[in-house]
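Consider the tokenized backbone below.
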């Protein structure tokens, strides 16, 4: 059902977070059909001379990459690219999970969160509470209860964490240990991070392979090969350059889809079940410490299309990371001269918990 919002409805929505191109708002009004809904609103710059931080058009090369996805290119004409791309991501993450400076080093280890082990997931959630940075926020009835609203690394100063947790307990009735158990159980039971990890693994060539295919797609000489003198490496990359255009587009497309999932957010919403029933439309977890069942939903947000022309940026960033570790003796390999697994610049997935 389509909903048309008027200016007077603004009072029913509160800010929850934002990405580069969009704001996330939560509904706080009284309409039963809207309870639990969030709104993804596109940013519009006041300075019209500056380009908006979103993809309004596809270049001819991007049309080659995304042309095989039904309706995606056409969605630009209808100004509904985010919705169309959400359908692309839902095929990987599951339709029921897709919604259309540091003062202290974090203890968070992504390997714990993605381990599939309930105990290690709990360890990851505990680290979010001790050093939330920009990775973790809790909202209670639409209002921020823990974490920060900005995008900086320090969203809660270490000295303020204890007081924030005390305030969170007052408004929610749950202890921090209850939140940790509730979120850990829901993440483990839902398997939602398994889908995220599987989609991230679509990038099986990494940027060091995909960058060569990028230059083929845009019909430009490969600037990476231009700087390579090793004959064996040149032969290795010539195999990539000999791939068909369709195959090249698929590899780059999978890389960009994986890049989206390495820079997205996970929002989990909880509410106490009022009456014990087995026919609820929601998934649920039982929190033993308070002897209560909680219904929950899990959604991925910030699923924006990554621009094709950002590929050189990903490559340069990757090389900076490799050079740093090589220089500090952590990795014994030469940049560009071997294949590896890596990311496009860090997984910024944020677990946003709404009680």
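A designed sequence for it:
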């Amino acid at each position: 059902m389509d909903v048309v919002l008027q200016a007077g409805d603004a009072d029913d929505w509160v800010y929850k977070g934002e990405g580069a191109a969009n704001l996330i708002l939560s509904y706080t009004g009284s309409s039963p059909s809207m309870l639990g809904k969030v709104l993804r609103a596109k940013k519009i710059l006041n300075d019209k001379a500056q380009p908006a931080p979103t993809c309004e058009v596809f270049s001819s090369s991007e049309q080659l990459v995304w042309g095989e996805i039904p309706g995606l290119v056409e969605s630009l004409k209808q100004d509904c690219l985010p919705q169309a791309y959400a359908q692309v991501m839902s095929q990987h993450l599951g339709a029921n999970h897709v919604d259309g400076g540091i003062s202290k080093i974090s203890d968070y280890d992504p390997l714990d969160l993605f381990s599939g082990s309930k105990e290690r997931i709990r360890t990851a959630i505990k680290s979010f509470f001790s050093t939330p940075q920009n990775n973790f926020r809790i909202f209670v009835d639409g209002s921020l209860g823990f974490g920060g609203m900005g995008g900086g690394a320090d969203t809660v100063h270490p000295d303020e964490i204890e007081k924030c947790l005390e305030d969170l307990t007052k408004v929610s009735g749950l202890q921090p240990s209850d939140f940790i158990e509730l979120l850990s159980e829901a993440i483990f039971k839902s398997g939602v991070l398994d889908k995220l990890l599987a989609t991230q693994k679509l990038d099986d060539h990494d940027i060091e392979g995909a960058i060569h295919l990028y230059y083929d797609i845009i019909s430009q000489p490969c600037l990476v090969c231009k700087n390579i003198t090793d004959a064996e490496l040149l032969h290795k990359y010539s195999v990539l350059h000999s791939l068909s255009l369709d195959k090249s587009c698929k590899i780059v497309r999978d890389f960009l889809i994986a890049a989206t999932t390495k820079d997205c957010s996970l929002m989990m919403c909880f509410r106490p079940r009022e009456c014990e029933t087995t026919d609820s439309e929601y998934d649920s977890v039982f929190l033993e410490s308070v002897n209560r069942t909680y219904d929950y939903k899990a959604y991925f947000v910030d699923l924006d299309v990554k621009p094709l022309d950002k590929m050189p940026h990903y490559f340069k960033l990757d090389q900076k990371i490799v050079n740093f570790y090589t220089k500090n003796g952590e990795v014994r390999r030469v940049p560009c001269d071997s294949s590896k697994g890596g990311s496009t610049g860090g997984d910024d997935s944020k677990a946003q918990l709404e009680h």
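The mean pLDDT is 79.
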